[in-house]
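Hey L., structure's done. Input below.
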Amino acid sequence: MAGRIPGRIPGVDLARGLAVLGMFAAHLLTIAPFDPADPATWIDVANGRSSILFATLAGVSIALVTGGARPIDGAALSTARRRLVVRAILLWVIGALLISTGVPVYVILPAYALLFLIALPLLRLSARMLWIIAAVIALVVPWLLPWLNALPVWEGETGGDLALILGWHYPFPLWSAFVVAGMAAGRADLRSRRTAWLLTAGGLVAAIAAAAASAVPALAALDPRSILGQVLADDAHSGGLLEVIGSGGGALATIGACVLLCRTRANGVLLPLRAVGSMPLTAYVGQLVAWALIAAAVLGDTGDLLGFRALQPFWPFVLVTLAACTAWALLLGRGPLERLLGWVARRVAP
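Output:
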């Protein structure tokens, strides 16, 4: 197929590319709250949802590298587990280094590392069992999260630092639901048209149901500071039940739709986005490193969010990322950081 990157599932890469650029938008743009009547606000869908899509795709990746629809077993599974542990450690280290730059974003990589470790005991499970576990986490943990967020461990400067190095802005007890759902999708065989249609339809139903529930007057009138208001919230990064169902469903629908879209002639045209999705770690880290360097040189302060956004960096970052990732994918294949992590994992766990 034209524009194909060897060894990849095009639709999964496309979804990853959208997630990465969505996180660029959430970081680099000042976005007004979503208003269906104002197209200028539609980009607000990237807030929160792009990172949830990113986490769901992490689960897809874990499933694919451990056999996809036919899970590996025995010595191969043991090796895969050790390599995932190595990758988790490296992701945490990279995340800690990015945090040290002072760039004012909540770096997702420490949470990613913990989510990789949480996934290890689940690698032998079937898609059916993974769907059940993901549903249980999604329905139960939002009721516990307000109490977890209120723990004294998060108080003060030390608590703030702990939250950063654990990626608590993406709380792993809850976000494991997205990773496990992604693993279930990967185990269900994403090369199947039927799987893609089921993901698209099921995800859309969940997203629409959550949106409809959030519009119910009794729920809309809840005090967002109350326990019930927090549990049922649908705001970005709230961890509320409606956000989990709506944004999680939206992530699954996006993955299914991207897989279907890449089975058409549009696949070749979408190569630049797919190239970004083939090296998401490189694109994500590159954005934050470039941000730190430019902000330090131009503003003298890597933490000046409004000052950096005033430079209007979004489109330059997007265009450079698309061009660089496309050239690298076509000429050299696997992304530089992805290649480095793979090399280290193979050396440590041969």
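The chain has a mean pLDDT of 92. The chain is about 70% helix and 0% strand.

-- N.
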